[in-house]
């Protein structure tokens, strides 16, 4: 049992070293130009350690961003006061702002966007809506909301987070409500 636990710790250390090395390389190189060899050399681990943990460099980034983004969605879904939820989201943007901006410059924003989209789809799939939507309506509405919410957060981040977070939160809530109302009008034939 102890040997298995030790092996798991070594595997996690390798994952952490590889992630750190890749993020460091992304500070000066585009993702498309970075090789596994560069990452393992900088991480101080073997290629075997890389392939034991990941298949591609994109997998490294997905493994890094997915839990971070999932944690923010968990904060939103918890029955906490809005102020606490906004504090958690604000903390995320404060700690990850530079990496998110770097993702655009270095060509890995699509990975973050994919992690965000998956979390949005889970969030909206579990959401109890005030009306019945067809399967197609619900699917398109979820995709529409995911794209819109991501675009709002992205714009807010890249514009220097000038508006208060509460304003952004209210804006997203307003768009969500308005689009649902539009679907209701469409389904009622009005």
Cα-to-Cα separation, first versus last residue:
65 Å
> pLDDT average, as an integer?
85
Categorize the overall geometry.
elongated
Instruction: Provide the helix percentage.
Output: over 70%
**Oligomer classification:** single chain
Strand-residue proportion = under 5%
List low-pLDDT spans.
none
**Count of spatially separate domains:** 2
Structural class category: mainly alpha
Order of helices and strands: HHHHHHHH
Total helix count?
8
Number of strand elements: 0
Q: How is the main sheet built?
A: none
Rg, please?
20 Å
Please provide a written account of the structure.
With 190 residues, the chain is mainly α. It folds into 2 domains: 54 residues, Arc Repressor Mutant, subunit A (Orthogonal Bundle); 133 residues, no CATH class. The protein contains 8 helices and no strands. Helix 1 crosses helix 4, helix 6 crosses helix 7 and helix 7 runs antiparallel to helix 8.
Quick structural gist:
The chain is mainly α and 190 residues long. The chain has eight helices and no strands.
């Amino acid at each position: 049992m102890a040997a298995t636990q030790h092996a798991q710790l070594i595997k996690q250390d390798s994952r952490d070293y590889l992630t750190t090395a890749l993020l460091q390389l992304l500070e000066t190189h585009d993702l498309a130009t970075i090789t596994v060899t560069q990452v393992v050399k900088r991480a101080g681990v073997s290629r075997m350690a890389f392939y034991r943990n990941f298949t591609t460099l994109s997998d490294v980034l997905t493994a890094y961003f997915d839990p971070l983004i999932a944690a923010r969605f968990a904060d939103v879904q918890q029955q906490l006061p809005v102020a606490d939820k906004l504090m958690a989201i604000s903390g995320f943007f404060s700690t990850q702002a530079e990496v998110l901006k770097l993702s655009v410059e270095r060509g890995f924003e699509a990975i973050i966007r994919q992690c965000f989209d998956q979390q949005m789809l889970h969030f909206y799939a579990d959401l109890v809506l005030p009306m019945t939507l067809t399967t197609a309506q619900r699917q398109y509405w979820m995709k529409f909301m995911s794209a819109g919410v991501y675009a709002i957060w992205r714009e807010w981040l890249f514009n220097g987070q000038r508006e208060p977070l509460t304003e952004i939160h209210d804006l997203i809530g307003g768009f969500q409500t308005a689009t649902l109302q539009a679907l209701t009008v469409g389904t009622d034939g009005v």
